[in-house]
Amino acid sequence: MIFVKNLHKSFGKLEVLKGIDCHVREKEVVVVIGPSGSGKSTFLRCLNKLEEPTSGEIIVDGIPLNSEVNVNAIRREVGMVFQRFNLFPHMTAIQNIVLAPEVVRKTNKEEARKIGLELLAKVGLYDKADEYPDRLSGGQQQRVAIARALAMKPKIMLFDETTSALDPEMVGEVLAVMKDLAREGMTMVVVTHEMGFAREVGDRVIFMDEGIIMEEGEPNEVFANPKNPRTQAFLSKIL
Amino acid sequence: MNWHVVVDNMPILAKGALLTLELTAGAVAIGVVIGLFMALARLSKHKVVRAGAIAYIDFFRGTPLLVQIFLVYFGIPMLLKWQTMPDNYQYTAGILAMGLNSGAYIAEIFRAGIQSIDRGQSEAARSLGMTQAQALRYVILPQAFKRTIPPLGNEFIALLKDSSLLSIIAIQELFYTGKIIVGRTYQPLPMYMAVALYYLVMTQLIAQWVAYMERRLGKNDLR
């Protein structure tokens, strides 16, 4: 589904990604962990070209990410959920969800609304369809954001620290929605600090530090027997 | 002092005030359109487009409106090699000059509004597959526009007052009308006070309208 070859990314003189190679299979849930500043989010943002790679090759769903045309085609197939939700504040929950299907996919209004309401029901917010984002809690906003991404019927979902900006009691409701998605066979790349989630849902864990992949493998293996000393140090701090 | 002069000339002044409003409305319409295009050009990725917008804004902000009015009023007939000026040409020239001028200010207002929107908004829109134009139209501009209402109100009020400069090319707006009456009646103090009062009423109307729009559009966006 996703092939990444020798991906480099620099911001000015600062090299954030120093050669990433990675392969995500269909229906696989890959969890990316690592200390802050390790390049996890940048890596994720390169996958739908919110960041322009400095060099290297990315192929998503068979389409190489190079020209502007391809980028919009890719982004239709790759949903993304952000740390800070980024809901459109001037639109209600349902309007947030139907916007992209209507203007990008040209889905007709009734059909888009029907799908939107189904998705809201799926994330447990059917009764909040007509609320504006500032009337919703953080956890509710993030669930709307997930529904918004799903409305484009993406083949891949990217999650960028989606629970890091939430109050602790709201983390669970967002993770539950993500778990459901994983169970349904969505291909997912998840950057997170939630080790419980990584262990329970992840098919594979990637540990990143200083812009490279230090270690990867099955979650139980990586968590129980980390081989790389940096992985050991990181895990001992957070577990 | 003869206050009768004011009362007697109220209707004529009102006619001038109406023209002032029309001139301002015309200039606002041109200014908003130019302002939007120049703001987008100013934020363009292309250097040449950006440089063009910067040059435009610098020129119209950096030179007096009075000079610009003359440039347009006398310049266009020269460029187009007209032998005589068409009827009512001064209105077209006056509105155009004011519109060109306010376009520069409004461009900066819109640019600030667009830049004040969190980058995450356009990232979210783009990540859903929207083109840059779609992201602007549906996500960025509606939010930016709300934030630009207060400074836009300022600009409209400034423009209304500046329209008095058009008296210099013999447009019979409010100030010009007042001046003519003073010339006839030799009562400058009451007449100009009446003129000032008319301006004040009109600028207050704009201020009230802006406050109303702000309340109406702002209620769903507390950020």
CATH domain fold name of chain B: MetI-like fold
Q: If strands are numbered along the chain, what order do they take across the biggest sheet of chain A? A: 6-7-8-3-9-10
The proportion of residues forming helix of chain A, as a percent range, comes to 25-40%
- Quaternary assembly: heterodimer
Gyration radius of chain B, rounded: 21 Å
Structural class of chain B: mainly alpha
Radius of gyration of chain A: 18 Å
- Count every beta strand of chain B, where a strand is a DSSP E run of 2 or more residues: 0
Output the CATH class name of chain A.
Answer: Alpha Beta
CATH superfamily of chain A: P-loop containing nucleotide triphosphate hydrolases
Unreliable spans of chain A: none
Total domain count of chain B: 1
Structural summary, described in words:
The complex is a heterodimer of chains A (239) and B (223). Chain A is α/β, with parallel strands linked by helices and 239 residues long. Chain A contains 9 helices and 10 strands. In chain A, strands 6-7-8-3-9-10 form a 6-stranded mixed beta sheet, with helices on both faces. Chain A has a 4-stranded antiparallel beta sheet with strand order 2-1-4-5, with helices on one face. In chain A, helix 3 packs across helix 4 and helix 4 crosses helix 5. The longest helix of chain A is centred in the last third of the chain and has 16 residues. Chain A is globular, with a radius of gyration of 18 Å. Chain A starts with a strand and ends with a helix. Chain B has one domain: MetI-like (MetI-like fold, Orthogonal Bundle). Chain B has 8 helices and no strands. In chain B, helix 3 crosses helix 4. The longest helix of chain B is centred in the N-terminal third of the chain and has 39 residues. Chain B: One of its GO terms (cellular component) is ATP-binding cassette (ABC) transporter complex. Chain B: This is Polar amino acid transport system permease protein.
